[in-house]
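This is your field. Have a critical look at both lines of this record:
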Amino acid sequence: MDLDNEEIEATRNLKVKGSDIDVGSIEEAIWRCKELIKPVHINWIGGMNQNAIKILLGNLETLSDMQDSANREITELKKQNRELIDEYHKRVQEVIDLEQDIKILQDDFEDKRLVYIDTPEFQDSYIPKQKIKDKIEDLEKKMKYEQNEKALIHLHKQIKILKELLEDK
């Protein structure tokens, strides 16, 4: 079986990367199969071989499409996974922050630096700042009119104690 010039040229075009065995990527293999099933090669490789190549080519193209689809799906899943991981890290940080806040509040409550406003203990022992300021003002007015030295000393001591209460908070 002699090859004519057209078949020889087509055969030269089929060579990929310099070797008949090395077909390279799937895209190159598909291109090569498409070349082999052209009618010009019927005498060279035979009709049955061309039909087999057509079937394999169809399967190869289907697999290639499936691979492309799977790659797109993997890319999308990776993106969703990254978003979920970022959201998870934000939630973990929120929990850590809340745990620290709770610990601080517990410590303050145990050390009596914090008392809940609704508790009877708080209402029994709470004196509004303004009430203390008003009392200081009243005592200072009394001092202006008081003539008794002992009474002045006593008023002065009361004012001093009330001012210390305000500074203590």
Remarks:
- The mean pLDDT is 77.
- Residues 43 and 87 are 64 Å apart (CA to CA).
- The chain is about 80% helix and 0% strand.
- The first helix runs from residue 5 to 14.
